[in-house]
Specification:
Layout (H helix, E strand, L loop, with lengths): L1 H25 L1 H28 L1 H4 L3 H9 L2 E3 L4 E3 L7 H11 L15 E2 L6 E3 L5 E4 L1 H9 L6 H8 L3 E6 L2 H12 L8 H12 L13 H4 L2 H8 L5 H5 L4 H11 L32 E4 L6 H9 L15 H8 L4 H10 L1 H6 L5 H6 L6 H4 L23 H5 L1 H31 E2 L1
Parallel strand pairs: 2-6, 6-7
Antiparallel strand pairs: 1-2, 3-8, 4-5
Helix pairs in contact: 4-7, 5-6, 7-21, 8-15
Length: 435
């Protein structure tokens, strides 16, 4: 009798408990599936890069001095064991702003859009008017100041990069090129003098009698930036219509790269916005996690979740260069020009698994027979099974290895200094604000 009573009570309770457990796991299954899928993409990209690097070692390898110098320019977060290699026109602005959050820099009181905020005295990286009203904040310089590994020597940097998770963000090379063109060539008041020099050089090539039928892109003309420039008379419609057209820019780029090698050192420092990814980040010597801005779904969000970072925004704010707009620009080129551009960025296409097909398709004319072969990717002769390693999860071998311990010691010392810098800067920000 007592056993039957227990069965009557326990059976429903067991069923209810089982249902609750299943329901609690249902929401986790898609998340686990997304994480596994994302890890698979990271592993595949790592394998492909290793194979391409092995096959093209003389072309892609950086001198060791250049690698160490490059690591100094990474954004280092020692608390979360991250090292970010920023690339112009690939969400770098977004990630500099992200690092303000990640590093717990308190910028709320310094919001330059809040006209009520008045500051007293000089604050590092904050511009203010005569009455103390904030009119500009140098976000990039703040992050650079906090994350630069100034205290680490070359040997310590080499150890540190082996126990952190380095990452870089890429996008289709041609889409990025369009974004760089819109930002650096169409703006008559570029930030860098070099881009103004290039604009003038392209204009001089036209000759006095050559007609300029360039129509300034409407989607840019209607933006707040250009409307404000016209309103303030810092530019005019006539000046905007005289800016280099996309075909003119491409002709200049092809000529400037003619007879140049593809080695990373063959690119001028001033050409940062146009440089291939492999010449910005030493992908063959640093095991980067490769995040694609144009990958499946929102890879920025997936990466942030993967790292366990608490960020309010997971959107990548990139200016220009959407695939549709890029196709419009490339429709102004000949297939011959697109083939030549592909040869310039060939290694980026191969390293990061992109194809030029849709851009060649929309271009004018036909591809010369002698260039057909160069558009076919060279088959991989080397198969490497080096999986992507998440160095946030230090494995047992690394824990007990002498080099691993030295690397972790370097990180710990750098972390203490970085936290101290952040506290000092936050204190200066707070003290300078008048309510």
């Amino acid at each position: 009798m007592q056993t039957s009573w227990r069965k009557i009570i326990c059976l429903p309770l067991c069923i209810i408990f089982t249902v609750l457990v299943i329901e609690s796991q249902i929401g986790k299954i898609p998340m686990m599936s997304r994480t596994l899928s994302f890890e698979y993409h990271l592993q595949e990209r790592s394998r492909n890069i290793q194979a391409i690097c092995e096959q093209n070692r003389p072309k892609l390898m950086w001198p060791q001095k250049s690698v160490r110098r490059n690591l100094k320019n990474h954004v280092w977060d020692f608390s979360h064991r991250l090292s970010y290699c920023p690339i112009a026109k690939v969400a770098s602005t977004t990630w500099f702003l992200n690092f303000l959050d990640i590093l717990n820099l308190n910028m709320q009181g310094l919001d330059s859009r809040n006209i009520r905020k008045i500051v007293t005295g000089d604050i590092p990286f904050v511009k203010s008017g005569k009455k103390g009203k904030i009119n500009g904040i140098e976000y990039r310089n703040i992050v650079r100041n906090i994350t630069a590994p100034e205290s680490l020597d070359s040997e310590e940097l080499t150890r540190a990069i082996k126990v952190v998770t380095p990452f870089m963000i890429v996008r289709h090379p041609f889409t990025r090129l369009v974004s760089a063109y819109e930002d650096k060539m169409l703006n008559p008041k570029p930030l860098l003098e070099y881009h103004k020099t290039v604009q003038n050089e392209i204009k001089r090539r036209r000759g006095k009698s050559e007609d300029q039928n360039f129509v300034f892109p409407k989607h840019l003309l209607m933006t707040e930036k250009y409307q404000l420039m016209l309103k303030r008379k810092t530019t005019s419609l006539e000046e905007l219509r005289s800016q280099p057209s996309f075909p003119e820019f491409v002709s200049w780029l092809l000529e400037s790269r003619s007879n140049k090698s593809i080695s990373p050192n063959s690119w001028k420092k001033d050409m940062m916005a146009f440089k291939p990814f492999f010449s910005v980040c030493p992908v063959c010597q640093v095991d980067y996690a490769i995040i694609k801005l144009d990958g499946e779904g929102n890879e920025i969000e997936s990466w942030i979740d993967y790292l366990g970072l608490n960020l309010t925004s997971t959107e990548a704010h990139t200016k220009g260069g959407t695939p549709d707009k890029a196709m419009d620009y490339f429709s102004q080129l000949t297939k011959d020009q697109v083939a030549d551009l592909y040869n310039i960025y060939n290694m980026d296409f191969r390293l990061f698994s992109y194809t030029p097909d849709m851009f060649i398709r929309v271009a004018k004319g036909n591809i010369p027979i002698e260039k057909m072969a160069s558009l076919s990717p060279e088959p991989l002769r080397t198969q490497i099974n080096y999986p992507f390693k998440n160095k946030l999860k230090v494995d047992e071998m690394q824990k007990i290895s002498i080099e691993g311990k030295k690397g972790l010691n370097v990180l710990e010392k750098a972390k203490i200094k970085q936290i101290s810098k952040i506290k000092s800067l936050n204190a200066q920000f707070s003290a300078a604000i008048m309510s």
